[in-house]
Structures are given as structure tokens and as C-alpha cells.
Design goal:
Blueprint: E1 2-9, E2 20-26, E3 29-35, E4 43-47, E5 50-54, E6 70-75, E7 82-87, E8 90-97, E9 103-110, H1 137-145, E10 158-163, H2 180-198, E11 203-206, H3 216-225, E12 230-237, E13 247-252, H4 258-268, H5 286-297, H6 300-317, E14 323-329, H7 332-335, E15 341-348, H8 352-358, H9 361-381
Parallel strand pairs: 1-5, 10-11, 10-12, 12-15, 13-14
Antiparallel strand pairs: 1-7, 2-3, 3-9, 4-5, 6-7, 8-9, 13-15
Length: 386
């Protein structure tokens, strides 16, 4: 059974020339890209299963395949747009315009990942690099553009641990004066040392090893440069309600609850400490946000699985603690990662009782052990043995 969605895409060029357009089928939906030589000024309307983007140019059929997300596509009789007959697996539509208004992306999103056969949607497999050569950023970007995971993920050998905040960014401050940045670094150093003992074949990289400031964007750039297989950001939660308590783990997506939005806003506030030339451009560029969101959808299932493992191991290490579950939110620090990534909120530093726990080595060790056990379980689930 299919639903009909009309996509009208026209641009302010000559009526003889339409934008270059292509479709990129993915495990989580269909990405339709329009590139124009002149500025696009789309007016978007969504009514039921009908999405229209109108700017006044003759439509041109996109190049590429539709995979299972659409049965067919055609130019409408008045040449004012393109129609797609979509499968009911498509559950929503996102769109974004680049900062220069020359690129329009429309993403036909599914609620679940579809495991495609190897050659049915992504074309030929990526050629391995020459013997001894390292994967480059351009190779990873090319894989991402084709809906493929980062090429180095086939071998689990590097984990990046990110102690939240640091330097001029103290993070949340507890009622007894405890700085979040200190507790997160102490936990991260324990994670590093425990991983070295339990998984000696894995290289562990920290985004900071002392009380220094690292911008949010630089943290995932480091993980990409080190070709990490996992990115784990460690934080302490905070709330205006002193009684708020417990632990929770996030992976990147749009926030589903008011609490998740509040936590994301709190952690994303670290960008205020960036120098002006470090301020991330993605915040004001919806295209960059959509591309990053599409990228993380490749790792949605694995990031969610790792988050579930952390929650379970935290509950085992802290049986008296309140598990607040696995959640989704738009943490900027996770957006640029080209690998599965999570953010762990270990305990509420704003809660006097939990602040006192965070001040003890025993509790910090148990939190670190829970994170390490989860990473080890995740690695075994990927078929990696030690």
C-alpha cells in the first residue's frame, strides 16, 4: 500500500534550466538533493502526505534510484514540480536550505532502519585503501554521502572518551561548590585506565586530560581524525529542582521530551565559551544540522544499543540510583561524529545527595566501570574478541 506525496521543486532560473537533482537512497529513508546556480527561495507547505516547495522554475527529474522508498516519480503536467509515489514506510519529511540558498535537501524519513542487501541501494562496495594507507576525511565523507558508515568501523580498535566541559567552562556547579568539569575528568581518566586493563587491544583517546577548554566542535573532529569506533561523552546532570535524581544516557536525535530539551540546552550552552572564531557555523545553518542528523541516523541503532548497555550496567553498579532511561536529544557535541556516539549523564550534581556521591572515589569508579563494561559488551556484540 502506498501513499502519494507530491514534491514540487522549482527555482528562480530560466524556465529552460532546472536545478541539478539526485536521489540518495539510505537505510533510514530517501534523500533528495537539489543544487542550483542561483538562489533558491522555497515556500514549503505540508498537508497530510502532500509536501510542496515552490519557487517558480521548471522541474527536472532527479537522477538516481528510489529503492523501496518510492514506486515511481514523474514531472507534473504543468512542469511545476515532481511527484513521488511513496511506500508507507516513509513516516515524515524534513527539509533544509543551505546558508547560500543554492542547495536544497529533502529527506523522506523512516521510523526504522531497513537492512538493504549489499548492492541493492548503495552501489559497488567501497574499495579498501592501499595496504598501510590511512583512511582520509574525504573517504569518510564520500562514504557518508553514499549512505555508508565510516570505512574504519570494520575494525574495532579505538574509543574516544570525552570529559564534558573544562577550563573556562565549569559546567554545572553543585550546591556544595563541586564543578562538573572536575568530576567528568576524574571519571574519564578512570574509564581510560580500566579500558587499558580490560581491552588492551583498543587505543583510548581523551578529548582532554587536564583542566583545559576544548570547543564542542573540536571534540568530534578529534574523534574523526583518530578514526574512532565509539565516541562517549561524560557529563553530570543538573536541574533547577534539587530533588531531581538518577542517571540517563542520550544518543543524537531531536529531543522527544521537555526534560531532554532542557538537558540538551544546558550542555549545548558550552558553546558560549568558544572564542568568536570557534563559534560553530552549523548552529545557524539548517542544512548542516540535517546532514549531521542524517549521518547519525546511520548509527542510530548501534548508538541506541550502547546507550541501553550503559543504562543496564549503571543500574547494576548503582542499585539505589534511579534509571531515567535512554533518551534522544540534539547535543551539539554528538553531531559531527562519524561513528556511534552517546552522552552519559552520570548523576545530578544539583542534588546534594548525588553531589556527595560524585565527590567519592568509590562512586566515580563504579560509574567508570559501568561505562567500560558497556563498551566491552558492545565490542563483543560487534564480533570483537579479546
Amino acid at each position: 500500500m502506498t501513499s502519494l506525496l507530491l514534491l514540487l521543486a522549482v527555482v528562480s532560473q530560466s524556465p529552460q534550466q532546472g536545478p541539478r537533482a539526485r536521489t540518495i537512497p539510505r537505510p533510514d529513508g530517501l534523500l533528495v538533493e537539489f543544487r542550483s546556480l542561483t538562489r533558491l527561495e522555497p515556500q514549503v507547505e505540508v498537508a497530510g502526505f502532500v509536501l510542496s516547495v515552490e519557487t517558480g522554475q521548471r522541474a527536472v527529474l532527479p537522477v538516481g534510484t528510489l529503492s523501496l522508498w518510492a514506486d515511481s516519480m514523474w514531472v507534473l503536467p504543468d512542469s511545476g514540480g515532481i511527484a513521488f509515489s511513496l511506500d508507507n514506510l516513509v513516516s515524515g519529511v524534513d527539509w533544509a536550505l543551505s546558508g547560500d540558498s543554492l542547495t536544497l535537501l529533502v529527506f523522506l524519513r523512516s521510523d526504522s532502519l531497513i537492512a538493504f542487501p549489499g548492492l541493492s541501494w548503495a552501489g559497488p562496495p567501497v574499495e579498501p585503501p592501499p595496504q598501510g594507507a590511512a583512511w582520509t576525511d574525504s573517504m569518510a565523507a564520500a562514504a557518508l554521502q553514499n549512505g555508508e558508515p565510516s570505512p574504519w568501523l570494520s575494525r574495532f580498535d579505538c574509543v574516544v572518551i570525552d570529559p564534558g566541559h573544562g577550563g573556562r567552562d565549569p559546567g554545572a556547579v553543585g550546591p556544595d561548590g563541586t564543578f562538573e568539569k572536575d568530576r567528568t575528568l576524574e571519571i574519564a581518566l578512570l574509564v581510560r585506565d580500566l579500558l587499558a586493563l580490560k581491552m588492551p587491544g583498543v587505543r583510548v583517546v581523551l578529548t582532554r586530560t587536564d583542566d583545559s577548554y576544548v570547543s564542542l566542535g573540536a571534540r568530534t573532529r578529534l574523534a574523526n581524525a583518530d578514526r574512532a569506533d565509539l565516541f562517549v561523552s561524560i557529563h553530570c546532570n543538573a536541574s533547577t529542582r534539587r530533588e531531581a535524581c538518577g542517571f540517563e544516557t542520550y544518543f543524537l536525535s531531536l529531543a522527544r521530551t521537555d526534560d531532554a530539551r532542557a538537558v540538551a540546552a544546558l550542555e549545548n550552552g558550552s558553546m558560549a565559551y568558544d572564542d568568536q572564531d570557534q563559534q560553530p557555523q552549523q548552529e545557524s545553518d539548517p542544512l548542516s544540522f540535517l546532514l549531521a542528523d542524517v549521518a547519525q541516523n546511520l548509527y542510530l541503532e548501534s548508538s541506541s544499543s550502547l546507550a541501553e548497555l550503559v543504562q543496564g550496567d549503571m543500574q547494576a553498579e548503582w542499585p539505589g540510583g534511579t534509571s531515567r532511561g535512554v533518551k534522544q536529544a540534539g547535543f551539539y557535541v554528538l553531531r559531527g561524529a562519524w561513528m556511534p556516539s552517546i552522552l552519559v549523564e552520570t548523576a545530578f550534581i544539583s542534588n546534594p545527595g548525588e553531589e556527595a556521591l560524585l565527590q567519592t572515589l568509590d562512586f566515580r569508579f563504579r560509574v567508570a566501570r559501568a561505562i567500560v563494561d558497556a563498551i566491552e559488551s558492545f565490542a563483543y556484540g560487534q564480533g570483537v574478541g579479546w
